[in-house]
Design goal:
424 residues; mainly alpha; 75% helix; globular
């Protein structure tokens, strides 16, 4: 990977966050493409490849083993994401404060994918996914502050919605791509990393960056952890947004982690058939997600309201989980999946904008976006570890109770959104 010259100081906005200039279409497109590459590295393992690999090496205990692999890997990502975000805020390299983390994350992502692909046991898989978790934390620290640092408030809904569309496309591509790559386990795990490599290179060349201001410099590791403190009593709205995303993410993670096994165990598909069926549902889900994401983002910016779209998103996800919990046919499963995707699109249209709106200190966007994304990272770590306990009720494979539990938790997002005061 070539190293671009650091941008001239004048190419990077020195305006305070509230006076940021509008961003152009090319910059937005590069951001969306990079988000697609990043989401592909997250979603192909989450939706298909990890579950496929686990059922190859430990079919008798696949529910519990998948939970351990995903949960422990996400826990590592959780532990490192906050200090990595703060270190990114304080990095004063000539190349910039975000770019080094994107490059390092790409290298670690490739290493982790190789370890998982070669793993003969679940324990080795876990070690590989731990490396992937560290990689994801580094990439997140590089690109997640983009909205808060470079996009003015009046564009955040639309740009955030495009990020949601990129995630939707990555989700559909993950299951379809995975179903056709099962013949070579290395290609299955390394393909998303290659896509991220291409998009990350464009991002590194196009998006300006500069060293951190000296006041944000990070000294020791102890200083990093001291800087991670966030007082929810002083900033209750940011805390409520965090809790709401956590509740919704747990419900969604129950579904996305175990939908593959539901198709295998309840509906009788082979792994390759299940992947293609998930991709078919993904095509319909993509239409729903894109429509709700773009429409929600535009309407949110125009009406200057965020909370109604959170209510809509949570309601759709609850409906999707309830329908999927009773699915005795592929048609019912598909209806549930489309409803859940529509809700995810509605949520993605405003969640980053909402978090940016209530962020306590915009000049420390890496720190606070790291704290915000901790909600979904924590959900992604805990949900797979809790899920096998729920699945074991009544003799095992109880996907209905698992999805209903997710619906109950998602209702918490409606409750927390109703209590937010600084945003309508």
């Amino acid at each position: 990977m070539t190293t671009p010259n650091p941008p001239a100081e004048s190419t990077v906005s020195a305006d305070p966050p509230e006076n940021l200039p509008r961003v152009g279409g090319w910059t937005i497109a590069v951001y969306a493409l990079t988000m697609f590459g990043f989401q592909l590295t997250l979603l192909l393992p989450a939706l298909f490849s990890l579950a496929y690999k686990v059922q190859l090496i430990d079919p008798a205990n696949k529910d519990a083993s998948l939970g351990l692999v995903v949960g422990l890997g996400m826990l590592i990502s959780l532990v490192v994401s906050l200090p990595v975000g703060v270190m990114s805020d304080g990095t004063r390299l000539a190349w910039g404060r975000r770019r080094p983390f994107l490059a390092a994350g790409l290298v670690l992502s490739a290493l982790g994918a190789m370890i998982i692909a070669a793993a003969p046991t679940v324990v080795v898989m876990i070690s590989g996914y731990v490396v992937v978790g560290i990689a994801n934390a580094a990439v997140s620290a590089a690109i997640n502050p983009f909205l808060a640092e470079r996009v003015p408030a009046e564009q955040r809904g639309k740009v955030g919605a495009l990020g949601g569309v990129a995630s939707a496309l990555a989700g559909v591509g993950s299951t379809l791509l995975g179903s056709f790559l099962t013949g070579n386990i290395y290609v299955l795990f390394l393909t998303p990393v290659a896509v991220l490599g291409v998009t990350a290179l464009v991002y590194l060349l196009v998006i300006p960056d500069r060293p951190a201001p000296e006041k944000l410099g990070v000294g020791s590791i102890l200083d990093v952890f001291k800087n991670l403190w966030f007082n929810p009593l002083r900033h209750p709205d940011f805390a409520l947004v965090w809790i709401g995303k956590f509740c919704l993410s747990v419900g969604s993670t129950f579904f996305t982690t175990y939908q593959f096994y539901l198709l295998l165990d309840r509906l009788g598909f082979t792994p390759e058939e299940a992947g293609r069926q998930l991709a078919a549902v993904g095509g319909l889900s993509l239409l729903a997600m894109v429509g709700f994401s773009i429409g929600g983002g535009a309407l949110s910016d125009r009406t200057k309201r965020r909370k109604p779209f959170i209510y809509l998103a949570a309601g759709l996800i609850i409906a999707g989980l309830v329908v999927a919990s009773t699915a005795s046919s592929f048609l019912l499963f598909a209806v549930g999946g489309v409803l859940l995707s529509a809700g995810t699109g509605a949520f993605s249209s405003v969640d980053l904008a909402l978090a940016s709106d209530v962020m306590p200190e915009k000049d420390e966007a890496g720190k606070y976006m790291g704290i915000y994304y901790l909600s979904s990272t924590l959900a992604g770590a805990l949900a797979p570890l809790i899920a096998p306990l729920i699945l074991g009720l009544g003799g095992g494979g109880n996907y209905g109770v698992l999805f209903l539990s997710g619906a109950v938790l998602t209702f918490g997002t409606i409750v927390t959104a109703a209590k937010i005061r600084s945003v309508r």
